[in-house]
Amino acid sequence: MRLRRLDLIRYGKFTDHSIDFGAARPGSPDLHIVYGLNEAGKSTTFAAYLDLLYGIGERSTYNFLHPYNTMKVGARLEFGGADHELARLKLRTGSLVDDRGQAVNEALLAGALGGVGRDAYRTMFSLDDQSLKEGGNAIIQSKGELGELLFSASSGLAGLSRSLVTAADEANGIYKKRSSSTKLAELKRALEALKTERNAIDTLASTYSGLKSTHEQADAAYAATTRELAGAKARHQELTRLLGALPAALELRRLDIDAAGMGDLPRPPSEWFALLPQLFHDETRLQALVETADRMLRQLADEIEAITIDDKALAVAAHMDLLDQGRARYLAAESDLPKRRLALAEQEGVLMRLLADLEQPGHATPEALLLPASLIGIVRDLIERRSGVEANLAAAGRELVRARENLESLNKEGGSQNGAAVVDPARLGRIEAALSRLAGSDLATRLTVEERTLVQAKRIQEKHFAQLAPWTGDAVALQRTSAAEPRQTEAWRGQAISIDKRIADHEARLRDLGTEQALTKARIAAFVAGGSIDDAEAARLRDERDAAWQVHLASLNAATARTFEERMRQDDVVSAGRLSRAQELAELRQLRQTEAATAAAIERQRELLAEARAEHDGLAERIRGLLPEAIDNDAEAAARIAALEAWSSKRAAALAAWDELQRAEEAVDALRGELDSHAATLAASLADAGHGGADDLPVAALMQAANDMLAAGKAEQAARQAHEKAIGDLDRDVRERERDQQEAEAAIAAWNREWAEALSRTWFADKAGTLAAVRAVLDALGTLPAILKERDDLASRVAAMERDQEQFRGDIAGLLADCGLSRLAPDTLASANALVERHEAARHAAQLRADRQADLEKHLEKRRALEEELAVHNARRNELTGYFGTDSLASVEVFLNQVRERDRLEARAATLRGQITEALRAASFSEAERRLADIDADAAERDAIELGARIEDLTERAKLLYSDVSLARQKLEAVGGDDAVARIEAKRRTIFLEIEELAVRHLTLRAGTLAAEQALHIYREKHRSSMMNRASEAFHLITGGNYSGLTTQPDRDKEILIGVSRDGGSKLADAMSTGTQFQLYLALRLAGYEEFAALRPPVPFIADDIMESFDNPRSEEVFRLLGAMAKVGQVIYLTHHWHLCEIARHVAPEVTIHQLP
Question: Please, what sign has the CA dihedral across residues 1015, 1021, 1023, 1028?
Answer without folding.
Answer: positive
